[in-house]
Amino acid sequence: xxxxxxxxxxxxxxxxxxxxxxxxxxxxxxxxxxxxxxxxxxxxxxxxxxxxxxxxxxxxxxxxxxxxxxxxxxxxxxxxxxxxxxxxxxxxxxxxxxxxxxxxxxxxxxxxxxxxxxxxxxxxxxxxxxxxxxxxxxxxxxxxxxxxxxxxxxxxxxxxxxxxxxxxxxxxxxxxxxxxxxxxxxxxxxxxxxxxxxxxxxxxxxxxxxxxxxxxxxxxxxxxxxxxxxxxxxxxxxxxxxxxxxxxxxxxxxxxxxxxxxxxxxxxxxxxx
Length: 273
Hints:
Layout: H1 4-16, E1 30-35, E2 39-45, E3 51-58, E4 62-63, E5 66-67, H2 70-88, E6 94-99, H3 107-116, E7 120-126, H4 127-135, E8 140-145, E9 150-156, E10 159-166, H5 170-181, H6 185-193, H7 198-219, E11 228-231, H8 240-248, E12 252-253, H9 261-268
Parallel strand pairs: 1-6, 6-7, 8-11, 11-12
Antiparallel strand pairs: 1-2, 2-3, 4-5, 8-9, 9-10
């Protein structure tokens, strides 16, 4: 079972740091760069992992975890970093990054994007493992559903024993909404992000969520895994956990804001190896 009170309180502080620059304790700052299919996020923590500042921007420079607009990705990361440095009054020189499982071939490109903004990459993780830095799950499966992919990490005794990833994510929900409502993709994306309309759109996108759950069920069973822990922007959709639980037969949990879990977890791992 997730320590939901602890996680919700911590992620609320990360969210607060988007608009309020918090005073760090003395020492090095830790930076996490999350290059996502739908958003690029930079999270800054202090040496004690307390949130300091966060900047994010909607972007379409990646597809299924792969950079498809290198120049655009570099520009956005550089601009976000400059905004953070202006807020903090100090340079950000190092960062950690994370990759969707199975996209190791894109590691060099992700690294080059970070370096183009003047940051040295000191650690590389897979996204579900980064999220588990926040969750602290010993046994179960952490499922990170971003814009392009559904990734999972199976944990036994606190160690990752299996990592999988397949291309189905929030972008697919948006495409289904656009087709169903006969509206532009940008408008469908706005509807998806509007929590007041989640109940309305849920029946429309349910089949895609079931496909995401089927990806997890393909790799784990209720006999082998005691719980599923969701994170990633797509998991902000109200009711998604109930579909996973029904399709897999495994108890499924998520925090109030699953979007910022992975970026914050990446930042926690900004430690030189």
